[in-house]
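Exam revision sheet. Question 4 asks you to relate a sequence to its structure. Input first:
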Amino acid sequence: MDVDAREIGAGMEGSQGQFPLTQNVTVVEGGTAILTCRVDQNDNTSLQWSNPAQQTLYFDDKKALRDNRIELVRASWHELSISVSDVSLSDEGQYTCSLFTMPVKTSKAYLTVLGVPEKPQISGFSSPVMEGDLMQLTCKTSGSKPAADIRWFKNDKEIKDVKYLKEEDANRKTFTVSSTLDFRVDRSDDGVAVICRVDHESLNATPQVAMQVLEIHYTPSVKIIPSTPFPQEGQPLILTCESKGKPLPEPVLWTKDGGELPDPDRMVVSGRELNILFLNKTDNGTYRCEATNTIGQSSAEYVLIVHDPNALAGQTGPDHALIGGIVAVVVFVTLCSIFLLGRYLARHKGTYLTNEAKGAEDAPDADTAIINAEGSQVNAEEKKEYFI
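Answer key, structure tokens:
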């Protein structure tokens, strides 16, 4: 398929007047290159294109070299343009446009041919890989000119820590490049796509890729899931043994307290499920689920405690014991308050009578006792009046 030539630099030679002007050209291998020579002012002087071997390709509109890939595009006194199709690496070099004045004036145009890298290949993967193993993948591509760039991606994230090697091919024009990726695999890598991407200017921003889907084998992981968080006596219970591993473990082994299931009529194993049709207290114990594959074995345990439905119902209702305790505390505090208040009133009354009693020790009658009591003579009349 032809690819239009791409100009990569001005590289214009010459000056105003009768002087040939050319441009350097870059083309992808297998594409078509257009070589153009222009003259601003020309007094009917001939133009000629010649190849790097100094063979004449065209002299004005006359073809000089027998090469079906070379065709005339335009010929006039001001321009001579030719095309080279199906360009190969051997076509690369310096082409010359000559204007046959006295003396002859020339302009050079360098044709650069890009070598397209081959589709990359990933090697080093042997399926399956065991969890924990060190994996080494190598991506290689040949035929690039200049040397291509290789990048690695895992889970759409680029991996930077890789090795890169560039070697010159036998033709001494193109390169073979390779890159090596080293990493230790785990179960999360199972099914992951590792991508090797080749970038090169000849690919028109569409990189070439190679992909390797990883297959990782690992020991099972086991978890027991009960159908209810509060198993009750008389009700059914389903214990599900959720096991993940590669290869997939099948079937699973159920045991109770280190031995076989005691009541196979009531305890039915179906696939990864243990169905206990109706629970009773004798079912209490430790149930174990064991899963095994070709890599290893893992297990999980579940401690079953069968609850009394009435006890569970009482736990869910109001706590009467708590309410009764609160009422008792309130009554106790009230009685204590009444008792302390009585003591307080009794003490104050006793003190008053005691003071009066002190005045009555030597008094012949009640009036004299009041007057002789502690206090001022003024208060004596008040006390006297109080007792009358």
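Marking note for examiners. Residues 1-16, 350-361, 373-388 have pLDDT under 50 and may be disordered.
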